[in-house]
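Blinded run. Sample ID left blank on purpose so nobody reads anything into the name before looking at the predicted structure. Input follows.
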Amino acid sequence: MTKKENRTGQVAVIGGGASGMMAAITAAQSGADVLLLEQNDRVGRKILSTGNGKCNYTNLYQADACYHSGNPSFPRKILRQFDVQKTVDFFEQLGISPKNRNGCLYPRSEQASSVLDVLRMECGRLKVRIFTETACTRLLAEKPGFQVQTNTGDFFASKVILAAGSRASSVPGSDGSGYMLAQNLGHRLVPVLPALVQLRCSEKFYPSIAGVRAQGKVSILANRVCVAEEEGELQLTNYGISGIPVFQVSGAAARALYQKRQVTAVLNFLPEMGREELADFLKKRALSRPRKTLEEFFIGLFPKKLCDLWIRLGEFPRNQCVDTLTKAQWKKLFCLIQQFQTTVTQTNAFSQAQVCQGGVDTREVSPETLESLLVPGLYFAGEILDVDGICGGYNLQWAWASGHVAGREAAHA
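Blinded prediction complete.
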């Protein structure tokens, strides 16, 4: 679009990500004349990186616990208005057939670009006017309507949908600028912190186990109280811990760190066994080959790098035979396997987080329409709100649902 083109519309959507494109499409389907303003050189760039490039665009399993907010009932009221079946139907109408992987839905092409392409085509079909490389610097509520100040000039609209995303992602433009626009209009922010992100730990041994993947359980303790736990494939890095279960509990760790609490991650590398069951299992294993060294004893149970670390941390003689282990040594071994403690010092940066927790306080937003309770005619959608989901397509489901509701309401208001 050029500066000479008409810069006035019924609805202006700020942010051309998943929620912004859905909001623009829904508003246009409802008959509104829509402007879509995106500060990057193209819309939907973050969509391309979702689901490891395959775009897990929703999940058949839905529960309140899949979404986090300081106002827990808020997400549910929006998601009920545009549920998973409506998401599936919407994308099937655009040409996306779902591929089901244990409830996670992907496009059959397994290409995130397919999802972005059909959204762009639908915007084109509905004559949504897209302005790229257009960064919004200020939003002014006027009577009537809004003035949207940008680096390329001013836009005017009767209604505005703020769908500018969060600070998460390495995609350029994920700078949280939408928060400032909301704050300038009087909205409060719940502290914005990384979520679905890796955790950095203080111990110096991590380079020696970098690259290890092992099934297990991670529990997050804040001042010795368990605040979150999850099972799955743990990934050990040269600075700390990662993997989907770590992502799932990282929000709780980030909050505790923000609150200046002591954060410890406890790793259990055999969560399927209780303590007594583990003791019986290992001792029976030892009886079958009593002259194996501890190093040989672990072969076939755990990754070698991990076993070498346990031997070193437990100060076991490397060539000690398992039938000579003392009661105290067995106890130490059980703790290393099932209660491996590591001190969490920080999360990775926003640029490495999949989403953020926190954002515009939902107590100042209508839970039915997503309209601001402070500024009539202003709507919110997507990550800019204090709502975030767990891994598995939930954050995109929130984007589709909130974008649909905001677009529908802005067009009809």
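Unblinding after everyone has recorded impressions. The chain has a mean pLDDT of 94.
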